[in-house]
Amino acid sequence: MNQLILRNRKKDYGMSIRIVTFGILLLLMSGAAFGQKPDRSSPPPLGFPGTLRLPAIQKFKLSNGLPVVLIEKGGVPIVQINLLVKTGSAMEPMDRIGVASMTAAMLDEGAGSRTALELADAIDFLGARITTGSGQHTSVIALHTPVSKLDAALPLMSDIALRPTFPAEELDRLRKERLTSLVQWHDQPGTIASVAFNQTLYGSRHPYGIPSLGNEQSLRTMKMSDLKHFHETYYNPNNVTLVVVGDVRIAEIQKKLESVYGGWKGRTTASVNWTDATQVEQRIVYLIDKPGAAQSEIRIGRIGVSRMTEDYFPLVVMNTILGGSFTSRLNQNLRETHGYSYGAGSFFDMRPLPGPFMAYSAVQTNVTDSALSEFFKEFGNIQKSLPNEEFEKAKNYIALGYPDNFESVSQIAGMLAEMITFNLPDNYFNTYVSQVLAVKKEDVERVAREYVLPDKMAVIVVGDRAVIEKGIRGLNLGTVQVKSIEDILGKPPKL
Amino acid sequence: MKRLLLILFLPLVLRAQEVNLSVPYERMELWNGLNVLLHEDHTIPRVSVNMWYHVGSGHEKPGRTGFAHLFEHIMFEGSGNVPEGMFDVWLEGAGGDNNGSTNTDRTNYYENMPGNALELALFLESDRMGYLLNAMSPQKVDGQRDVVKNERRQRYENQPYGMVWIVMAQNIYPKDHPYSWPTIGSMTDLSAASYDDVVEFFKKYYVPNNSSMVIAGDINIEQAKAMVTKWFDEIPAGKPVEPIDPPAASLTSEKRLVMEDRVQLPRLYMSWLTPPLFTPGDAEMDILANILAGGKNSRLYKRLVYDLQIAQDVSAFQSSASLSSSFWVMATARAGHTLAELETVIQEEINRLKNEGPMDREVQRAINQFEASFLRSLETAAGKADQLNNYFVRTGNPDYFNEDLARYKAIGRNDVQAMVQSFLPDGARVVLSVVPNGKKDLSAAGSTEVKP
Question: What's the confidence (pLDDT) of residue A18?
């Protein structure tokens, strides 16, 4: 294994905002050796890693104060423009769940002078894509278009953002579509497991505990005025950032954005206080019966950390080792060593509030109990002293792989969105790699002990109860509660 | 110590409003028949190595379905000079990722990593091409057999409607046709696969003259060529691999089938045999799929989902492959509606296209979307690498991007109409109804029960 030594190199281009350099303990890159066999006794030494040069992050404001973050990226003549609204489903009142998601979905169902069909036809004819959606803390309208079609696509995008018409018949249509999605969830073991996991961790009074699509009752009672109110309150220049990445120059794009977004009037946004979720304090198992299932879907975990945690980098390294890469311990154990599964892993979903830590797999039905014990073996092992090689491999994997996030315009826009959502500093991309490489082994070991608490986890298993229950109870993990799919999802809505 | 030079490199040349797609490359061929294509792109300091072996599930022998894919898994388990597990460990330690995939025609492998780790990837790829059997054992075969069986459970058996792909392959193609069995294979055949099969398959298909490799990204071409020679030149050529040449598949009647599944809503699948990849008619079928089900204004989406609201979703696609393609229409009924209702509407729309053809705007709208998607496909080195390999293998010209796009741009409404008339006959297709257990009354009319 190659040891990594960080070697700083000064930036050498005015335009480079970020230089990733690594010194790797290296030998000369061997040249071609014609006519003789290559030496295969050890892998060839690595040469010197190249430098990612990303054009500067440029920031400006439109005349109404709307902030714009731009990266001019040449190469392929396409551009991505994301209108990032800093509000998502977490701001919904408890009796209005699904409003953020439905609001986003309704934006392109009629806007400006165009009907839903006319809008779709205009966008498709350009070869552009405009998508709308919402997460827990953000909503987004994303335009991806050939640069040659930008002038035609921008007015369509701004109609969708500023002037949605919210036709009643389209809401009725989407309501039925979403109620039908709730019906289809009953077929999907992975969805059932994830819904149950979030419910168990956060309960039904916390925005992270409830599917952002909404439930039957909220979908049936959702009114157009709810959507209009959400749009008026949160989609406004005081609560929005435009992210632009692509083959455009600042002077021209500033003019273009000003013409479609500069007249948008701001207003103050509301804020909501969340109830704190109750952490999982003792191990509990929910067995959700799916008769005849060929595999058991497993989710194990507890409430993790906020993205703002000071332990961000040690946690990223620790999770890479536990379940965040192909060679991670969970995947190696459950897939390669035992053949119980096609894959296993874990993640910390870091959000403004502490999101879940989750370990997951889908395992062959008749080894469900053995698979669960292997999960807990690995949760135990990660608390112990970490071998140096494994620690270095994980850091290299994250640090040297980081430039991969900056290849396409949509990837870069996604990285900028993370920066904006979490108020990360402007030099965040520049310092990411050095922060990964600066992580200390004792901190990785510490965060494992602090955040991976095997005795305080919820265990969700969706599988064939008749086959797996006895084995699961035999593990004595803790209280086992048997549930039906309807206990988790409710009855399938009748349409 | 060598540092890679950073050169601003524009893979695209723009001419006025016309986009000219070109991905420049250099080609080298080793004495043993290995073809190598190299493409420089210094957008990010990463490189993608993309290796194709020209063997897929279509080459499998009777009783060994799923073997090409099982073999793909075994390729990651170490080789003569790479201890088990170290293929992934070494690559991840260098900041790389890797994977592979198998279809009816080919098996591909790729490594994406920092440019400085190129030689590591070439060492690993050449070692498994040259020395896989030095480290093979029955235990390794058993280990991946279990993993692959779980892949089958996860992706087919435990998915709603998941067994459809297996049932449909059997019914679209005649029994002995190499596309009549699924790439994932049957559980019985996966159990039967042996160590001896691995040896035979490797010697026959995993030879340099049956493979091609693309290196795309942050490289210096001359240095990369030297490395290729260094690591691959010693590998002996194998016997020439005969192309599979089965009798052309044809459907001579309409098969109407119904299958029960653990699902809430019934779903209709229709499939026809259509022209092979890159042959006349193939691109027209892509355009047709967009006209039928791409976007809100597409004919089937607009009627079934938007206007009538009797379907939850509808999709259409041309599944292109080298011996034969298939064209698919799929739609899920809303609660309270039957697949017979859906089929009636789908048939009406197909008949309208046969009788009247599409409108010019519908065709142009589809072409414009394909043109934009060609641009998107040029954004990543890994994407370009796989496409260069694909074009090279299928057409002989790796930089076929412009020609490929030209296929679409040349299509007019009459072409689409002619292809619907030729290739979507009512009397030669498979119509499969998937219904909730015990609800055969929701199926399309006149369907015979089939079990997975």
Answer: 30
Element (H, E) at A139: strand A139-146
Residue carrying the six token digits 């062959």: A364
CA distance A228 to chain B (A): 22
- Cβ contact, residue pair A186, B127, below 8 Å: no
Asked if B230 is an interface residue toward chain A (Cβ–Cβ < 8 A), one would say yes
Say how far apart CA A142 and CA A160 lie, in whole Å.
Answer: 10
pLDDT < 50 positions in chain A? 1-34
CA B437/CA B42 separation, integer angstroms: 55
Specify whether the CB–CB gap between A345 and A328 falls below 8 A.
yes
Q: What is the pLDDT of residue A51?
A: 83
One domain for residues B224 and B324: no
d(CA B284, CA B286) in angstroms, rounded, equals 5
In this structure, the answer to whether residues B321 and B186 fall within a common structural domain is no
Name the B residues in 54-113 with CB < 8 Å from any A CB: 80-82, 85, 88-90, 92-97, 112-113
Nearest-Cα distance to chain B for A356, in Å, is 24
Q: What is the chain A residue with the closest CA to B7?
A: A53
Q: What is the end-to-end Cα distance of chain A in Å, rounded?
A: 60
Q: Domain count of chain B?
A: 2
**pLDDT tens string B18-37:** 567 899 999 999 999 999 99
| Record: contact B229-A124, CB cut-off 8 A | no
CB nearest to A34's CB, from B154, B155, B229: B229
Show which of B168, B197, B232 is a domain's final residue: B232
Question: Minimal Cα–Cα distance from B253 to chain A, Å?
Answer: 33
CB atoms within 10 A of CB B133: 15
CB neighbours of A425 closer than 8 A, spacing ≥ 6?
Answer: A431
What is the C-alpha separation between B150 and A363, in angstroms, rounded?
7
**Beta-ladder partners of B215:** B38, B49
ipTM: 0.93
Q: What is the percent of chain A with per-residue pLDDT over 90, rounded to a whole number?
A: 85
Residue B246: inside a domain: no
Please tell me whether residues B162 and B261 are part of one structural domain: no
Nearest to A325 among B92, B119, B127 (CB): B92
Torsion angle in degrees (nearest 10) through CA of A165, A169, A175, A176: -150
Q: Which residues of chain B neighbour A76 with C-beta distances below 8 Å? A: 11-12, 375-376, 378-379
Mean per-residue pLDDT of chain B:
94
Angle between helix A428-437 and helix A312-322 axes, rounded to 10 deg:
60
What is the average pLDDT across B305-322? 98
User: Which residues on neighbouring strands pair with residue A81, listed in sequence order?
Assistant: A143, A244
Chain A residues with CB-CB distance to B145 below 8 A:
339
User: Domain range spanning residue B181?
Assistant: 23-232
Residues of B within 8 A of A295 (CB-CB) are: 150, 153-154, 157-158
Chain A CB within 8 Å of residue B32 CB: no
Handedness of CA A50, A51, A54, A55 (dihedral sign): negative
> Do residues B364 and B404 both lie within one domain?
yes
- Mutation target to probe the A interface, by most A beta carbons within 10 A, among B44, B110, B131 is B44
Tell me the shortest Cα–Cα distance from A400 to chain B, in angstroms.
4
Q: What is the CATH number of the domain that holds B163?
A: 3.30.830.10
Domains of chain A with bracketed CATH: 1-53 (no CATH), 58-261 (3.30.830.10), 284-489 (3.30.830.10)
Same domain, B269 and B302: yes
Q: How far is A393 from chain B (nearest CA, A)?
A: 4
B278 and B383 belong to one structural domain: yes
pLDDT of the residue at A35 = 53
Interface with B, mutate which of A179, A187, A332, A338 (most B CBs under 10 A):
A187
pLDDT in tens, A379-394: 999 999 999 999 999 9
